[in-house]
Amino acid sequence: MEGSRKSGKKNITEKQEAKMLAEEGGKSASDSDLSDTDFTLVKFIDDPNILRIAVMASPEVTLGFLLAGVGYQKDRFRNYMMVESETQQEDVEQFFLTVYRRSNIGIVILDYDTVKRLRNVMQRCNQLLPVLVTVPNKSSLTTYLDKKERNRRLRQRDAY
User: Fold this and answer.
1) How far is CA 149 from each of CA 97, 146, 152, 154, 155, rounded to the nearest angstrom?
2) Where residue 62 falls among pLDDT bands split at 50, 70, 90?
3) Is residue 155 situated within a structural domain?
4) Domain of 24, in residue numbers
């Protein structure tokens, strides 16, 4: 633990904190007179130089990335879409093109099934950014691994 503890504008050393606890009868630091009003709020400024990650995948994959902190929402735009089999093709294509054209998106993560649905649209996309990354989902994992293994064998055969 650090030698001093910062709480907003007040600096309290460990000795002072121990003395305060003894005077208060052993209350915890959260029960002391230090309140949340002592903290200053930092306003988040959206930096245009920061590239964000967008996710278009099955709900399981998308939720995993959201739990990892990839989610972003500002001005009625969010950088993720949970694509299910019932999702309209037009909605999927429209969201993909919206994300693809945004200047602050650097990576678009798509699951295997969504890539198959967007094959025709993706053929027209030839920009350097955003980078399109395909990840397998639980229903396509074996297909994805079989295809990867087949490509590896073909490369080995061509090497000889």
Assistant:
1) 31, 5, 5, 9, 10
2) very high
3) no
4) 4-38
